[in-house]
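Q: Here's a chain of 442 amino acids. Please give me its 3D structure as tokens.
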Amino acid sequence: MTRKSKRQIERDEQIYQLGTLVAGEFSLQEVLDKLAEAAVKIVGVKACSIRLLDEEAGELQMRSTHGLSEEYRNKGVVSKHDTVIKAAFGGEAVILDDMRVDDRVKYQEATIKEGLVSQLTVAMRFRGQAIGVLRLYSPRSMHFNEDDIILARAVASQCAVAITNAKLYARAIEGARMAEQVRLAGIIQRKMIPEKAPKICGLDISATYIPCFDVGGDFYDFLRVDDHRVIITIADIMGKGVPAALMMSWFRGAIRGCTNAFREVLQNERHMKHEKNAGLITAKRTRNAIEKFNKVACEECRDGEFISLFYASIDAEEKTITYCNCGHEPTILTRNNQATDLATGGLVLGVDEKAEYDIETVELKQNDCLLFYTDGLTDAVNFNNELWGRDKLLETAKKFTAGTSEQMISNILGHRRRFVGLARQADDTSMVLVKVTKEDQK
């Protein structure tokens, strides 16, 4: 494996730090200014601008810049119908190699006076909707590469999270009817939970999220590495309601920012699959990720706050799962009517920055089932205040291993529902179920 340069290591660390900005005690303007500055430093360009879409006016308002003059900031209106903006909103990373002669540039004289040559534009998106653009500028002819595009999109993603959280928080403060604001928060939060599991050769994956209140602290996410590999995270933030939801939103952003930075490395390691130390490299990568997550959590969690996390990298081709359980409910591996807990790991995140974590790799077989869940699944109670409990979960899960992952989730929830009846529950329920199938199945 090629050793990273000092510059690459610094860039990875800076990407990781982006996630911490969203949860810091900063105003939206401060966060956007810091993100613009970070983008310039990470990519190594002259300047950056962040524009937000005003739907009513049909224009993009300048909200933050770094490295640009006041005159250039106020050069004129940028419409959402602008050629570059439309392309960016359509999903492209738009590169202008020479703004001075490119017909797509509306303010060429201002560009020349500012000393700008190349430009990269990417959209800021939230749940598929473009809410603005992030632009990077170079004073020389600079053909932005794929790494620059990935980095720009990582910053744009953090901007979208910061903007969304700020709008939500402002509504909660200003609104006289807190219940309605919390309902809106729940809608936004649920949109952050993946609606569909990724399609991975050799795996049948399904998931569900059942909030107890309008908002909560559960979340799960998927990172599809390639056709055969996926990273699954499931976590539970200590607490309930809006505080837990905001913490969840931040932690999800931090995990995505860090894990996405590993995507290219993980894809490049595909050629090492048959080397003797390939498993050790995967384990080391997992440990590094967990240590970074814990560091972020320790910086942001206050007294009494913590996060439980189960982080797993599944390779359907090699039929292995490499995981770390950070104080979370053990994932259940069901095989031949026998259940095994995947419990190797360590302390919950956010308590001890020096905590050490163990990593385990387990071989998988066809028809194995992996059940990831949060404690709300087993802590459900009926009107007699009796817990549904882990024993009933195991008994139910083993009954339905012959079905698809979606059928298994449906059957587990159905049995739990019959037990608890109409009794009101006190915690969210999240489940991810992975079934190992034949290679040609998805």
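Q: Can you summarize the key feature?
A: The CA atoms of residues 137 and 289 lie 31 Å apart.
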